[in-house]
Specification:
- By secondary structure, this protein is an alpha/beta fold.
- The chain folds into four domains: about 5-165, Immunoglobulin-like, CATH 2.60.40.290; about 200-315, 2-Layer Sandwich (Chitobiase, domain 2); about 320-365 and about 410-740, Alpha-Beta Barrel (TIM Barrel); about 790-855, Immunoglobulin-like (Sandwich), CATH 2.60.40.10.
- About 25% of the residues lie in helices and about 20% in strands.
- The chain is built from 21 helices and 32 strands.
- It has an eight-stranded parallel β-barrel with strand order 16-17-20-21-22-25-26-27, surrounded by five helices.
- α11 runs parallel beside α13.
- It catalyses: Hydrolysis of terminal non-reducing N-acetyl-D-hexosamine residues in N-acetyl-beta-D-hexosaminides.
- GO terms for molecular function: beta-N-acetylhexosaminidase activity; polysaccharide binding.
- This is beta-N-acetylhexosaminidase.
- Belongs to the glycosyl hydrolase 20 family.
Length: about 850
């Protein structure tokens, strides 16, 4: 579908029908409920769900003249809607429900059930339709939110089992209890108080007394780090320590330079002096972070005059040089203050790369001087008649263009501030410009610019940054349902646009004094059918005999982009597809590492190792072929994946269920070995690894690091972001920094399993009793996920346990919700009936309620 036709079609949809007088109906009195009726409906990969509409007002809901819009991640099946209405997709994840000729309206006090079928399956509440709003026909530009909306929980197997052979039921307290039994208490003397785990640690007997009077003495190379440390200690002590060159006999903190590997350091805490030694500012900074994790967690709750730090000797260096966290702020936006807070969190745990996903189908989040449409149009979402004043609602962002999750961007000044903040914390910020797919925000914005300048008679200027061919009649649907989200790589204006944006990025980094080594140019999920009917493509193919099919445009595009980037001193970085070539084997499609780009210094994020999809070894194949690889595996590293199968546990689950243990037990050089579940959460059939390519020693040299990722389709606001990333980020930090643990290299399976249980127990103790209590207050405090307790009945009493120790378990026996005043669990509970349990952190914040019945 062409972009011109799409815009015209949207306008026709809004305006073509005869005008109907505005009904005297208040949308607040429309109650809407949605429920999953049945997965595997009619024995097929489809499900049946239902809306129930109830008119709670005193005025009838009209039989015509209205449209209900909503976002939905599944695709309804045409012709299956009941109740006299119809559901259809507009574009992306935006659908509309409209009355048909036989719709009789909804009288006051009455209800109407509307069922419809859709492809695939649904499990949790984040699968549900979201962002519902009404539009009356006489006011087509106004969206009225439906605020009385409830998602009914699934309670029966037909609602939560995805297919007939789905063996994984909803998680229960009893299941959690069995899982939590892997943990065992770790004696205090065996705990390492530095996190992530250092190369070597030795404790002492004495204590260093930290007071506001303790000065910081730093070699000239570490003045910036000394200032940073003084600021951190001011938070703890209520007063900023002095920076001093004195070498007298008083207690002091010394930052000294000595020839060492770039990120290595030593931390030596004695009763009279703390000394951090490193060969670089990076190493000194990481030594400071280790000192901070050595400080008791309670110290972050309020300033104190005295802090006691145990004697310690640490020698340390990271395993990987690229320790990354990826954040998508496009699907749903995060404000600058949350990004700064995220950088503080990353710095504490020695992560050194922020992969900043700034452009997408659903949002362009960075101001680019000279191209105001990118943020005026592409950074705003709301109900739109023409589709050209801003982007349509997505992922439940609703009709209000001023909504905080759908709309928002970073000004140039904001971004420079973020860069300076990151640089001070030794974090490299890699901006991502998603191309050529996942680019709808940019495509739409540049179309608007094109039309505006065309009307002004400035035709040459209008076409300068155009990203789509106005005459392109190609038809396609992206994975997310978009029909107009791919940049046309045959147009010279595409490369003018990319160079313009890249140049502006280079200028921002230069002004911020921040390093810019690469720009991530995307490369993810370009759908079949794209470019097939583009006159611009046909013209290019006539001029370039090497381009025989649209597949060849891929190599043409990334060849040109990589040369442009290299001319600016940047190496090429993208998703795994930029390193792949489509070919055939015995007449069947085959996808292989592209030999053309191996020697070009390409670096790729490899996400697709979904266990059971067939590409489990893709990361290893690319590394063995010579590409620089960042392990970004969906099986273990996608923080937006739901923790487990539960209706009230948010997140997607198409690639895996991912809890903190999935990150902890990831073995970077042999993730086949410790894989336990397939992508559906079932016990893994290890035959899927037969014939798969393992990582060679040469391939290991090309694995530059690992990356945790948070895509934001299901993340609405900073609280949900923090819930999703913590405590998972602690598993990422451990695996990115620490050396391979003994269990990862042990060849005997039984011995490896025993070693893993010990290692997990030590890690869980550190996370639960030290790091999460620290994060209750650090950087203002984080709204991390509090794991639900496990519970089971043993000998007529309810026994409880935890995934992570350190939380206070409270319970009730009278049916009420546990509060901070409820009894504390200390021994199995003898009371009969429903026992409700919650875990509380040091600030009195609780996780979800678990209920177990004691008959």
């Amino acid at each position: 579908m062409t972009r011109t036709f799409l815009a015209a079609w949207l306008l026709v949809l809004a305006l073509a029908a005869p005008t109907v007088a505005a009904p005297g109906f208040d949308a607040r009195y429309l109650q809407v409920r949605w429920e999953i009726v049945e997965n595997n409906y009619q024995g097929k990969t489809q499900f049946l769900s239902a809306f129930t509409f109830t008119n709670t007002g005193k005025t009838d809901f009209p039989r015509e003249g209205w449209t209900l819009y909503f976002n939905f991640i599944r695709t309804p099946i045409a012709g299956t809607t009941t109740g006299g209405v119809n559901v259809e997709r507009l574009n992306g994840d935006l659908f509309r429900l409209t009355p048909q000729t036989d719709f009789a309206g909804l009288p006051a006090g009455k209800s109407l059930r509307v069922e419809f079928m859709a492809h695939d399956w649904v499990i949790n509440y984040t699968d549900a339709p979201a962002g519902l709003y009404l539009v009356w026909q006489d006011a087509p530009a106004v969206g009225v939110p439906v605020t009385n909306y409830t998602i009914l929980p699934s309670t029966e197997p037909r609602q939560y089992n995805r297919f007939e052979a789905d063996k994984i039921g909803l998680i229960t307290p009893q299941v959690l209890y069995e899982q939590n039994k892997l943990y065992h208490d770790v004696p205090t003397q065996q705990q390492v108080p530095i996190f992530p785990t250092p190369v070597s640690y030795r404790g002492g007997q004495g204590t260093f007394i930290l007071t506001p009077q303790v000065p910081i003495q730093a070699d000239a190379a570490f003045k910036r780090e000394a200032n940073y440390l003084a600021g951190e200690l001011a938070t703890l002590l209520g007063k900023r320590p002095l920076l001093s060159a004195a070498t007298g006999g008083t207690a002091r903190i010394v930052l000294q330079q000595k020839a060492m590997p770039k990120e290595a350091y030593t931390l030596d805490v004695k009763s009279a002096e703390i000394t951090i030694t490193a060969g670089s500012a990076n190493g000194i900074f990481y030594g400071i972070q280790s000192l901070k994790t050595l400080i008791p967690p309670t110290a972050w709750a309020a300033p104190a005059n005295v802090i006691r730090i145990p004697e310690t000797m640490v020698q340390d260096a990271p395993r990987f040089g690229h320790r990354a966290f990826f954040i998508d702020v496009c699907r749903n936006f995060q404000e600058k203050k949350e990004i700064l807070k995220l950088l503080d969190l990353m710095a504490l745990y020695k992560l050194n790369v922020l992969h900043f996903h700034l452009t997408e189908d659903e949002g362009w989040r960075l101001e680019i001087p000279g191209l105001p449409e990118l943020t005026e149009i592409g950074a705003r979402r709301g109900h739109t008649v023409t589709g050209e004043d801003y982007l349509q609602p997505s992922f439940g962002s609703g009709p209000d263009v001023n909504g905080r999750i759908g709309s928002g961007h970073y000004t140039r000044a904001d971004y420079i501030e973020i860069l300076k903040y990151a640089t001070e914390r030794h974090i490299e910020v890699i901006p991502e410009l998603e191309t050529p797919g996942h680019a709808r925000a940019a495509v739409v914005a540049m179309n608007v610019r094109y039309k505006r300048l065309q009307k002004e008679g400035r035709r040459d200027e209008a076409a300068r940054y155009l990203l789509s061919d106005p005459e392109d009649a190609s038809e396609y649907h992206s994975v997310q349902g978009w029909t107009d989200n791919v940049i046309n790589v045959a147009m010279p204006s595409t490369y003018t646009f990319l160079e313009k944006v890249t140049d502006e990025l280079v200028a921002m980094y230069k002004e911020a004094g921040a390093p810019l080594k690469t720009v991530h140019y995307g490369g993810d999920e370009v759908p079949a059918g794209v470019w097939e009917k583009s006159p611009a493509v046909k013209k290019l193919m006539a001029a370039e005999p090497a381009i025989k099919t649209t597949n060849d445009l891929w190599y043409y595009f990334y060849g040109k982009v990589s040369r442009m980037a290299a001319g600016k001193g940047l190496y090429m970085y993208g998703w795994e597809e930029i390193a792949m070539r489509k070919t055939q084997l015995d007449g069947n499609p085959q996808y292989i590492p592209n030999p053309d780009f191996v020697q070009k210094g390409f670096q790729v994020d490899v996400w697709n190792n979904a266990l059971g999809w067939g590409a489990e070894d893709l990361a290893y194949r690319l590394a063995n072929a010579g590409y620089k690889v960042v392990l970004s595996c969906v099986s273990n590293m996608y923080f937006d994946m739901s923790v487990y199968k539960a209706f009230d546990e948010p997140g997607y689950y198409w690639g895996a269920f991912v809890d903190v243990d999935k990150l902890f037990y990831f073995i970077p050089y042999d993730y086949f070995k410790n894989a336990k579940e397939d992508r559906l959460g079932n016990p893994l059939d290890r035959s899927i690894f037969m014939g798969k390519e393992r990582l060679t020693d040469y391939g290991k040299s090309n694995v530059v690091g690992i990356q945790g990722l948070i895509w934001s389709e299901t993340v609405r606001g900073p609280e949900q972001l923090e819930y999703k990333i913590l405590p998972k980020m602690l598993g990422l930090a451990e695996r990115a920094w620490a050396a391979d643990p003994a269990w990862a290299t042990e060849k005997d399976p039984a011995r490896s399993e025993a070693l893993y249980a010990d290692a997990w127990s030590s890690f869980a103790t550190t996370v639960g009793t030290r790091e999460l209590p620290r994060l209750d207050y650090y950087a203002g405090g984080f709204q991390y996920r509090i794991p639900s307790p496990g519970a089971t009945v043993v000998d007529g009493k309810v026994a409880l346990n935890q995934q992570l120790p350190g939380f206070t378990l409270r319970y009730t026996t009278d049916g009420t919700e546990p509060t901070v005043k409820s009894p504390v669990y200390t021994a199995p509970i003898a009371a009969k009936g429903d026992i409700k349990i919650k875990a509380f952190n040091t600030r009195g914040r609780a996780g979800k309620t678990s209920t177990v019945k004691n008959p």
